[in-house]
Amino acid sequence: EVQLVESGGGLVKPGGSLRLSCAASGFTFTNAWMSWVRQAPGKGLEWVGRIKSKTDGETTDYAAPVKGRFTISRDDSKNTLYLEMNSLKTEDTAVYYCTTGSTRSSRAFWGQGTLVTVSS
Amino acid sequence: DIVMTQSPLSLPVTLGQPASISCISSQSLVYSDGNTYLNWFQQRPGQSPRRLIYKVSNRDSGVPDRFSGSGSGTDFTLKISRVEAEDVGVYYCMQGTHWPPYTFGQGTKLEIK
């Protein structure tokens, strides 16, 4: 059974930092392109960024609102995806989901999400 | 960025009746490999999104056959042949052709009349 389990969310002050993790199981994580998607309270879905597999160069892409502040990385030895968030703003408040396969694959999986609240 | 425009944004439907959601993209979603990466997601209240349809018209595993997707180029549609109570939620289209970034529609809230 495929599982994606996010963790690391919480309350942080504006300008602060937070690191989210997504533990993956039930599929070959090493080969997977992984993404983060967020959803502000009562709002729609917003793609945050993506990391390719190591064999595809492990390159990353980011949405404009987070570029330069957020960094996506992966540890294939731990089957874990990360989202390092710096210089957080109140508008970064959202549930953050990790997902794989959602854009082009025949199989798509989402985690349950983790809530990040940026407030003073 | 590709803009995905959904309509309607609110969709009250009687149980057992059909429903249809439109999604229009600002550019053609045909990729260089010949595929069209237009996907549909369902998000039930309090749950994570779940993909229903990929590449315009392919149902994901476990998705009831009352859900169908169609369209081409820039114009796409999600249809539910007979709405059931469990279909209540928000539906999003998403393009995976032009990246970065992948982009979602605004969402269509389906409710039972």
Average pLDDT of chain B, rounded to a whole number, is 97
Spans of chain A of at least 5 consecutive residues whose pLDDT stays below 50 are none
**Helix residue percentage of chain A:** under 10%
Overall shape of chain A: it is globular
Q: Regions of chain B with pLDDT < 50 over 5+ consecutive residues?
A: none
Number of helices of chain B: 0
| Main beta sheet strand tally, sense and closure of chain B | 7 strands, mixed
* SS element count, helices of chain A: 0
N to C succession of SSEs of chain B: EEEEEEEEEEE
Whole-Å distance between the termini of chain A?
A: 40 Å
- Structural class by SSE content of chain B: mainly beta
Which structural category fits the helices and strands of chain A? mainly beta
Describe the structure.
The complex is a heterodimer of chains A (120) and B (113). In chain A, 0% of the residues lie in helices and 48% in strands. Chain A has no helices and 11 strands. In chain A, strands 2, 4, 5, 6, 9, 10 and 11 form a 7-stranded mixed β-sheet that branches. A 4-stranded antiparallel β-sheet of chain A has the order 1-3-8-7, with no helix packed on it. In chain A, a hairpin with an 8-residue loop joins strand 9 and strand 10 (109-110). The model of chain A has no long low-confidence stretch (mean pLDDT 97). Chain B is mainly beta. Chain B contains no helices and 11 strands. In chain B, strands 2, 4, 5, 6, 9, 10 and 11 form a 7-stranded mixed β-sheet that branches. Chain B has a 4-stranded antiparallel β-sheet with strand order 1-3-8-7, with no helix packed on it. Chain B is globular and about 40 Å long. The N and C termini of chain B lie far apart (36 Å). Classes of the chains: A mainly beta (120), B mainly beta (113). Chains A and B meet through strand 5 of A and strand 4, strand 5, strand 9 and strand 10 of B.
